[in-house]
Amino acid sequence: MRIGYTLMTEQAGPRELVEHAGLAEQAGFDFEVMSDHYSPWLDEQGHAPYAWSVLGAVTQATERVELMTYVTCPTVRYHPAVVAQKAATVQLLSGNRFTLGIGAGENLNEHVVGRGWPPVNVRHELLREAVEIISQLFDGGYVNYSGQHFRVDSAKLWDLPEQRVPIAVAVSGGQSVRTFAPLADAMVATEPDASLSQEWDVFQGGPSRKIGQLPICWDTDRDAAIERAHEQFRWFGGGWKVNAELPGTAGFAGATQFVRPEDVAAQIPCGPDVGPVVEAVAKFREAGFTDLALVQIGGDHQSEFLDFAKGELLPALR
């Protein structure tokens, strides 16, 4: 299993994220993923820079690690033709180190353009058309597309990388797996669900990349780690069926007002010990995931965590 690092835009500013990217590469992580949000989940997180500008800078601050969006919604806030252009540009800047991770999105980030928030079945229709448009643009030449939701008129990517940008799609159940496995290169999921992995490989026609994500909160003081995880990551326990629908930080604060610190600690490895992290990572490996990106909770606690990762965590995981 390849171990990655998450550049979480909801908890750090753009300059800090670029610095963290370089440090994570030096620490020995295999790849780095970046969230693409217009808003943090909770006010306490406090950040939301534009991911694609940061990614451009990160391509120049790193040399080796693969880069990836985890994930971009190419349907409401962005048009898929524009996402294809951005992805191709980042692939060129990075020297073929970029994977485009996309998903159906959350109300939190997409409602800001005033187009409303469609029901989940429509969101999947939108995402399917978006994948088709992006793939056609990656093929080169002029693209015309007339779908139920999107139209593209004589669009062409004038700067295409020699190595095609891989597309990874976030899935949450059998319906999304059956829809997107034939269209994508890799699977994204946040739960170590073996059935998703197995079904994905069936509809892919063979084994392929499956990329997960695991939040942790490292600190030399376990109580401080639990307090920070509760403050900044208590939204995580709601599950994506809830998280995709709430429109703002006030909604997430209200929905999680009765979540206790011990509830968060039961789901997220907290504290200085390697063991709980290794156990949590093993669940993804056993579920068939090939890649796992770790999230260190707390934007001000990245450099210390990366020292810990280099000296103890990554060797233990490997």
Write the layout of secondary structure elements.
Layout: E1 2-7, H1 14-27, E2 31-34, H2 51-61, E3 66-69, H3 80-94, E4 98-102, H4 107-110, H5 120-138, E5 143-146, E6 151-155, E7 167-170, H6 174-180, E8 186-188, H7 194-204, E9 209-216, H8 222-233, H9 240-243, H10 249-255, H11 261-267, H12 275-286, E10 291-296, H13 302-317
Parallel strand pairs: 1-2, 1-10, 2-3, 3-4, 4-7, 7-8, 8-9, 9-10
Antiparallel strand pairs: 5-6
Helix pairs in contact: 1-2, 1-13, 2-3, 3-5, 8-11
Quick recap:
This protein has about 325 residues and is an alpha/beta fold. It has one domain: Luciferase-like domain (TIM Barrel). Helices cover about 45% and strands about 15% of the residues.
Describe the structure.
- The chain is an alpha/beta fold and 318 residues long.
- It has a single domain, classed as Alpha-Beta Barrel (TIM Barrel).
- The protein contains 13 helices and 10 strands.
- It has helices spanning 14-27, 51-61, 80-94, 107-110, 120-138, 174-180, 194-204, 222-233, 240-243, 249-255, 261-267, 275-286, 302-317; strands at 2-7, 31-34, 66-69, 98-102, 143-146, 151-155, 167-170, 186-188, 209-216, 291-296.
- The strands form 2 sheets. It has an 8-stranded parallel barrel, surrounded by 7 helices.
- Helix 3 (80-94) links the parallel strand 3 (66-69) and strand 4.
- It is globular and about 55 Å long.
- The model has no long low-confidence stretch (mean pLDDT 97).
